């Protein structure tokens, strides 16, 4: 992989911030054999995103060199979009800094929600949008009244909703219910214990400070206790809103910015194969971009690494009524494929985020967030209810160029990665790189 690397930034509105860099890429695409697009997830700054890309490319180059240059002259587009750091602990009441009171943690969660960076790394006072900030400030002013006032709880929810874009709401992650439920009912549901799936023997409790880890029939671990139900619900509402904010941002960047970029590449170099790698919410961004594009002449492959969207994202009638939000990507061959998806029970962040969705819908299953739950995560369980899933390859395996993957275009592959991916961010190893390169090769050799 010897092609040039191009950095393109996108604003929070999905607009291309540095069109001169895009023009340089467009000018050079005629000399490339393919375009590789790298898209980060919930990073706080340019340095973190760039470090991810450097490690990805190092692993890809190592594997590519050993495999006799599968894809020479590949040019690389490195996407930078205004995401925010989001850890598993941020999703649960009491998971933050030790010693915080209930009210302090609610305020801290709201302060994090208020940050609305225009570009990746903007986290100063100027990164808050006035109308957005006003709504969150109102919510912050209500925290002291939440325990005793139903009206305060109602206004708290309405102000948080007013700061979000409801256009990204969908049935597959209960976000539609988040906007439609009566505020008091939302408090009631988010105040209940939240079930999580064990990450296997020896895994840490996700309880954190101020919570209790206990078990109910069926083996699910639950988060609850220690804090008042009202304050627990308030933290979860604020943190779910932050999750939704990043989900919405990733979709906007994908649809408005990255899709436009890729369409311009197609206009200039219509035969150029495009390979997209997305991690976490970056996976949502690349899938949103491809969903926006019409099917083209050249191959398009997807490598979705610990993707932070619903495991029903590609599904056909997952609840007997609704298709997944990105069903068109596979059904209409907007991505010609293959599409590979890493998933693991070790992904604690997704193992907590999606049980929160189950609480909104009050689907109190025994193993919330697993493949049988309507609200599981793609990076936790792989694609569910998706006819295009091919089961000839079901594991991410040791890097061994003597046994290539048997990927085919038009197919989706769920690669269970428990052996090689230990947490949500552990996606930079050579095993992941090898599977990605094999998907790229399969896309262009069909």
What's the helix and strand layout?
Blueprint: E1 5-9, H1 19-28, E2 34-39, H2 46-66, E3 74-80, H3 102-114, H4 130-141, H5 150-162, H6 175-180, H7 183-191, E4 194-196, E5 212-215, E6 221-224, H8 229-268, E7 274-279, H9 281-292, E8 300-305, H10 327-331, E9 339-343, H11 348-360, H12 378-381, E10 412-416, H13 430-445
Parallel strand pairs: 1-3, 2-3, 2-7, 7-8, 8-9, 9-10
Antiparallel strand pairs: 4-6, 5-6
Helix pairs in contact: 1-8, 2-13, 3-4, 3-8, 4-5, 5-7, 7-8, 8-9
Can you characterise this structure?
The protein is an alpha/beta fold. The chain folds into two domains: 5-79 and 250-445, Rossmann fold (3-Layer(aba) Sandwich), CATH 3.40.50; 88-191 and 225-246, no CATH class. Helices cover 39% and strands 11% of the residues. It has 13 helices and ten strands. It has helices spanning 19-28, 46-66, 102-114, 130-141, 150-162, 175-180, 183-191, 229-268, 281-292, 327-331, 348-360, 378-381, 430-445, and strands at 5-9, 34-39, 74-80, 194-196, 212-215, 221-224, 274-279, 300-305, 339-343, 412-416. A seven-stranded parallel sheet has the order 1-3-2-7-8-9-10, with helices on both faces. A three-stranded antiparallel sheet has the order 4-6-5. β2 (34-39), α2 and β3 (74-80) form a beta-alpha-beta unit. Residues 200-225 have low confidence and may be disordered.
